[in-house]
Every structure is written in C-alpha cells, then in structure tokens.
Amino acid sequence: MNSYASSGDIDGVERCKLLYQAAGIPLGEHAFNVLLKAFLRAGDADGMIRTSKMMRSANIEPNAVTFTTLMKACSAKGDVRRVHRCFHQMLRFGIKPDRITYNTLLNSLRVAGDVRNVEKYVKMMERDGINPDVVTYNTLLSLYSECGRIADVKRISAKMREANVAHTEFTYNTLISAYANAGDVDSAEEEFYNLKASEIRPTVVTLTALIHAHAKNENFFVAERILRQMKDAYGVRPNHVTYSCLIHAMLKLDARDRAMELYEEAKSQGFKINIDTI
C-alpha cells in the first residue's frame, strides 16, 4: 500500500484497502495515514477529508503524521484558514508538532503574507525545542524579501550562518533577488560571490536576478556583460525574464536600437516579449 501511496496511485491503494476489508483486517492508524499520503500525492483534498472522517468513525485518533499530511493538502490548495485550523486541532489533541508540521504551517502563512503569525509560530517552534532548519530559514527569507524588509533579510541570513545552517541555491537566489529589488547591488554581488565560493552553480534565476540588480542601478553595460557570461562562462540559457529585464534597461538608457536587437534575439530563441514595451 505504501508504494502505491508514494506514487499517488489511488486505485492501487483502494485495491489494497479492499483486500484488507475482504480479509476482515481493520484499517489501523498506519493504513489510514498511508491513504492520506496517497490522496495528498494525487492532489485530492476531498479524498483526504473523507479519509479523516473514516478515521474518526473507526475511533482511530489522528497523530502528527495525519495532521501534517492534511495541512500540506490544504496548503497546496491555498486554504490558509484550514491549515491554521488543523494545526490548532492538533494542539487540542495534545499532539506535539514536529519540524515538518511547523514548516508546513509557516510556508502557508508566508504565501498569505502573514508576517505577524509567521514570527509568532517561529517563536513557538523554538520554545518547543525545535531549531529552525534550512526550510524554515528559506521561508523567512522569502517572506521578508517579498515584503521588502531588507534589514530582516540580512538578519536571517546572518542567523543561518551563526547556526551553521548552510545556504542553498534557493537561499542565495532569494538573497540576490531581495537585494536586486532593493537596489543594493553591492550586497547582491557579495551573495553571488558567496554562492560561487560554496561551489553552487548559478542558474538562470541567479544570473537574471544579478542582471536586475545592475540594471536597477543603471549599470547597463555590466548587466549586458552578465547576459553574455550566462552562455559563455556558465552555460546557462537566458529566459523571457532575462531579456525583458535587459530590454527595459536599454530603453531606460534610451538605447532603442540595442533594445530592438535584444528583442529580436529573444524572438529568435522562441521568447515572446510584449512589443508595446519597445
């Protein structure tokens, strides 16, 4: 049953369930959690709700896995209120959340832009003796970056290093994008240097964010040099966002001819750039 659940094969899980029933074997806590996992993989929130009701009918108490799986499903559907409710139901059952539970809750609240509750539950997590991991820190970085709270972005990045939690590709991309949006090109370049020093290969997201940082600071020729380095030094293919960023930069410089050249280059690679911007 577990192998079917891991692949999201609902039919396979249902066949196993029928075999249990035919043999007169009642479904236990583990079997119900496997069912929930299968519905989660298949993106079937209604199936998960039906299964949780079946658990209650069978007088089987949900555990941390049950609630966390339900929270993941609700989070995937953008139902933050239900995620929150599941978390508090878990507490009422006297079940202690684990790191995965907290990270699921925090990410859901991040998507909703709920800074106050994210900060509240990080403190609760730490009071429960659970140290934030890279997922927790990346969630906080994304939240503060999206809110433009650069001082908090820097604080969380420093806290990661103090806790010896390694920065990942996602961490560096988030930092570079945050600094780019804030017009802090020096910090963006510093994190790009740190990424390379960590032997993490830059991606199109990384390099496009760096281009954006320089373009926003009117370092247009540096931005274009990075475009060439993407292909020549890093073997990375620019994307629609890369070209759009540079085209807008060239228009700002009043280099209309160069903007048109970049537009034609993007078009030749199958990217559609809004012609009205040129």
Describe the structure.
The chain has helices at residues 2-6, 10-22, 29-41, 45-57, 64-76, 80-92, 99-111, 115-127, 134-146, 150-162, 169-182, 185-197, 204-216, 220-232, 240-252, 256-268. By secondary structure, it is mostly helical. The relative contact order is 0.05. The radius of gyration is 24 Å and the shape is elongated. The mean pLDDT is 85.
Number of helices: 16
Number of strands: 0
Largest sheet: none
Strand content: under 5%
Give the termini separation. Answer: 57 Å
Q: Oligomeric state of the chains?
A: single chain
Radius of gyration: 24 Å
Task: Point out poorly predicted stretches.
Answer: none
Shape: elongated
Overall average residue pLDDT: 85
Q: Would you tell me the structural class of the helices and strands?
A: mainly alpha
Q: What string gives the helices and strands in order?
A: HHHHHHHHHHHHHHHH
Give the helix proportion (percent range). over 70%
